[in-house]
Design a protein that fits this description.
The structure holds two protein chains of two kinds. By secondary structure, chain A is mostly beta strands. In chain A, about 10% of the residues lie in helices and about 40% in strands. The longest helix of chain A is centred in the last third of the chain and has 8 residues. Chain A is globular and about 40 Å long. In chain B, the strands form three sheets. In chain B, strands 10-3-4-12-11 form a five-stranded mixed sheet. Chain B is built from seven helices and twelve strands. Classes of the chains: A mainly beta, B alpha+beta. Chains A and B meet through strand 4 of A and helix 3 and helix 4 of B.
Chain lengths: ~170, ~230
């Protein structure tokens, strides 16, 4: 398994690299009113509008430091046809994190945290995944598919109706 | 000033702040750690410096320029791109599908076969204990024979080993440029004057780094070879 490692605050985290489409600089996103703090907004990535999640706010209630190594990891996954009414569409999500500078390959998985209760953020518990020891550091692997509540994800990535362009033209 | 960098098994001590410029690969290469790491890019001192470099705010305008780059739609990946090995034979640049290439090795002694060696068959070569037939590709293709300098005189010369339908052939080329992916739309038809000659094995031409490369068809090239050797 290959992992893309990064930090949030002082701790090391990782995302499985098979979910990663691209790592891009931390660009500004257009904020969406009334969304949680950890949704930075929507930004344009390769001609698609995708939501940008701030892992600092999401995990430790603190915005990311904005340095050159603070980057957006663009991940792609499908939630299956039933959970979101978008068919089997692949969902792209931008995930911002600090020190996104290295990849590492590991073989075995050491500790599972899948049953970890998180009382103040119950929706986040399934995403916190596993703990690994990599090169003397303890790294927590995030499951990007479960990072956001399904309802929120559905609202952010729902496809625009086919007639959107016509409506805006008739204004 | 020195920086202690802990690696998994031991400490590497940088003798100065930007040691790679002074005693490393861009300096006088006197750093004793180069014996271990070969190149500064493998050394934890340089990786730590790179981390410090990235641990600063982005310069003005940098993120804005990236926002514009990221807004560009994705360019469709050419699904019919084919992977080819590009090599030079005399003055001709040619390419073979990478799938047929077994090995690229330094040239070695070709043992002539009495009464059999000729313009097409050069002899046999020993490739890691296996004797392979070595052909002259220029003879097969009807190209001008390259200058008859010994292989050692051309440092870039290589021996290519190719395989098709369990038959392996080796041939000498003057230079191997590497493997590249060629999109299907960049392939051009071979002019009739070229394909009409004895180079029917060339099926297409493509531009590669200011050069025109002839793409060889492995079936036409190697199947014909079988007949010419056994005939």
């Amino acid at each position: 398994m290959q992992l893309l490692t990064f930090t949030i605050g002082a701790e090391d985290y990782a995302i499985e690299s098979r979910r990663v489409v691209e790592v891009v600089p931390f660009v500004a996103a257009r904020p969406i009113p009334r969304t949680p703090d950890f949704i930075r907004g929507i930004f344009t990535h390769r001609g698609r509008l995708i939501p940008l999640v701030d892992l600092g706010w999401l995990l430790i209630d603190r915005p990311l430091r904005e340095t050159l190594s603070t980057r957006v990891i663009v991940v792609e996954f499908s939630l299956g046809p039933c959970s979101i009414g978008t068919g089997d569409q692949r969902i792209r999500l931008g995930v911002a994190a600090e020190n996104v500078v290295s990849l590492c390959s590991i073989v075995e998985i050491e500790t599972s945290l899948s049953a970890l209760p998180t009382p103040d953020a119950p929706a986040l518990a399934p995403a916190l995944g596993r703990l690994l020891r990599i090169g003397g550091r303890t790294v927590q692997v995030l499951d990007v598919e479960r990072l956001l509540p399904v309802a929120l994800l559905a609202g952010l990535v729902a496809p625009a109706p086919a007639s959107t362009r016509d409506q805006s033209a008739s204004y | 000033m020195s920086h202690d960098i802990a690696t998994e098994d031991r400490q590497v001590v940088a003798p100065m702040a930007d040691c790679w410029r002074h005693v490393g690969v861009t300096g006088d290469r006197s750093c004793p750690e180069l014996k271990t790491f070969i190149h500064c890019r493998n050394c934890p001192v340089l990786s730590a410096a790179a981390r410090r470099f990235f641990d600063r705010p982005a310069p003005a305008g940098y993120l804005e320029s990236w926002r514009e780059i990221l807004e560009q739609p994705e360019v469709a990946v050419d699904a019919d791109a084919r992977s080819v090995l590009i090599f030079r034979l005399g003055t001709e640049w040619l390419a073979l599908p990478t799938a047929v290439v077994v090995e690229v090795t330094p040239p070695r002694q070709v043992h002539r076969l009495p009464h059999r060696s000729g313009p097409v068959l050069a002899g046999i070569v020993n490739i890691r204990g296996q004797l392979q037939l070595c052909v002259r590709l220029e003879g097969v293709l009807g190209l001008d024979a390259p200058a008859t300098e010994p292989p050692s005189a051309v440092p870039s010369a290589r021996l290519l080993v190719v395989e098709r339908t369990a038959a392996r052939w080796a041939f000498r080329v003057d230079e191997v440029a590497g493997v590249d992916r060629v999109p299907g739309r960049s392939l051009r038809d071979v002019p009739a004057t070229v394909s009409g000659a004895d180079t029917r094995a060339t099926v297409a031409l493509f531009a590669w780094q200011d050069r025109t490369v002839g793409l060889l068809d492995e079936a036409r090239l190697l199947d014909g070879l079988q007949r010419r050797i056994s005939g």
